[in-house]
Design brief:
The chain is an alpha/beta fold. The chain contains 21 helices and 13 strands. The protein binds one RNA strand of 77 nucleotides through β8, α14, α15, α18 and α20.
Amino acid sequence: MDFKKQVVDTLIKVLPEEITEEQVTKLIEKPKTSDLGDYAFPTFILAKSLHKAPKMIAEELVGQLDTTGFEKVVNTGAYINFFLDKKAFSNAVIREVLTQKDNYGNADDGKGRNVPIDMSSPNIAKPMSMGHLRSTVIGNSIAKIITKLNYQPVKINHLGDWGTQFGKLIVGYKLWGSEEEVEADPINNLLKYYVRFHKEAEEKPELDDEARAWFKRMEDGDKEALALWTWFKELSLKEFQTIYDRLDVQFDHFTGESFYNDKMDAIVNTLEEKGLLEESRGAEIVDLSEYDLSPALIKKTDGATLYITRDLAAAKYRKDTFDFVKSLYVVGSEQAEHFTKLKIVLKKMGYDWADDIVYIPFGLITTGGKKLSTRKGNVILLDDVLNDAVNLAKKQIEEKNPNLKNKDAVAEAVGVGAVVFHDLKNDRRDSFDFNLEEVVRFEGETGPYVQYTNARALSILRKAGDVDYADATDVSVTDDEAWDTIKMLQNFPDVVERAAKEYEPSVIAKYVLKLAKSFNQYYAHSKILADDEGLKARLSLVKSVSTVLQMSLALLGVKAPEEM
RNA sequence: GUCACAGUGGCUCAGUUGGAUAGAGCAACGGUCUUCUAAACCGUAGGUCGUGGGUUCGAAUCUCACCUGUGACACCA
């Protein structure tokens, strides 16, 4: 059912010989609105060789075209506009969706190869903020999208579970904390010690020395230090898990920074062997001045390793373990330079697969135009946002549909769905200022709008009763009101492919909003459950729409309640 | 200061590879529930696409300069 090819084949017969099929395929575009046509061919490029005005060329070509198989072909200005045969097209598209079901849009680009995704990566003993939400939901959605193209995602939660901050935490806990307090509300209290540590350390710099000493003890394998660290880590993971459950996100590995502790020496040795390491100001670095970059700091003056050292080890480990085709890192855009350096150093080490490392940046979430900072206590807790969203959703249900069953479950799906969808709706590079009202919206271009559209579609299907969608011979719907919806359905596979290629969930989000809108327009203008010969075809369309709506929401990690 | 990213209606954003009168959603105003869920639909109003030059049949899109904003820039991650 390649309708574009039909257009190309028809065109190529009347075009000058020097124009190839490929060129034509590339030139074909889709008009902005359906009333202009379904496919269009711009004639501008012919103007030079034919020495005629594009408008005239279009006019002449239209006269020569064999228009069988099309509803009509007309020229509008310099464009040749093709109108597809609605009956054949809708029949083919709807049938395709109904038979493929959840496999609609699948492809085999990935051939089952591994693609590790570094995502979420919260810091132990710190609450998950809106920033972690972005990495989590973007990574999760990309994993689902590339799965449709038969890549095998490996979701890695690269926990921030090592570093000097644990020394600070231990100092803070020892000074101001107690076991009971921590057990009662682990992360909030640990955060409290951490924030207080930073405040007091401004006047008492000796606290920093103490913190460094405790971290040194951790690195040296000191029992007490490690016991506290393990305890903090376990408590944190438990709390993180409740959020991951709410978001319905699972990980394949929880290999944090500490996981690479015993893999650092090998990396440092290799760097040394390749003669890349030099000493500068007492630290060990890889010089990158030829790239106009500041050096990559491999070891601190005191011999401790740094961020990039660990990431080098992690990159190597992932290649060795997963033999990836691509290795993705869903990390905030402020770390762009880090990843540039990482790739350069790997390349210098002789690892060609450095080219397969893909950094997937996303924009910052700010409050009042300022960057969030855990240290300064300026955070937006993800858990709070989700709770607020769910409460608002519950209120909305009481207003709109008080007799709904499973109110709580639906409120959870709608509230969380609104937050997640909002985060994925726009280009991931856009940064935005946090605004609860903006994030938790239920009307317009929102997750709940799509969920609602699907719920209405399902409601129609329920009312229609048992229908066997497999046996219908003609499922064509030729209403003008349905045309945009049918074209959107046909577009889905291309959309999935583009989203995968660009690692951009917003492509799916934008698409599903448009599909929902076009279906709502159809819904508002046509009676679907009318008892006539077109009923089964219309129901098939509704069924197809709800299939694709649900699939799209699933690709974004948003739930689709049956009723709301 | 250097580098990176961004600047589209009051607000939040779309705008594949340059192409047909720059699209949505919120907010404003007006309309539509005895018929499939009004979290919906329809309409009105609102834009010299940061500024100035360049490339060409054609620029929101490419290029240069400038202005504005944000972020990164050696021992945090």
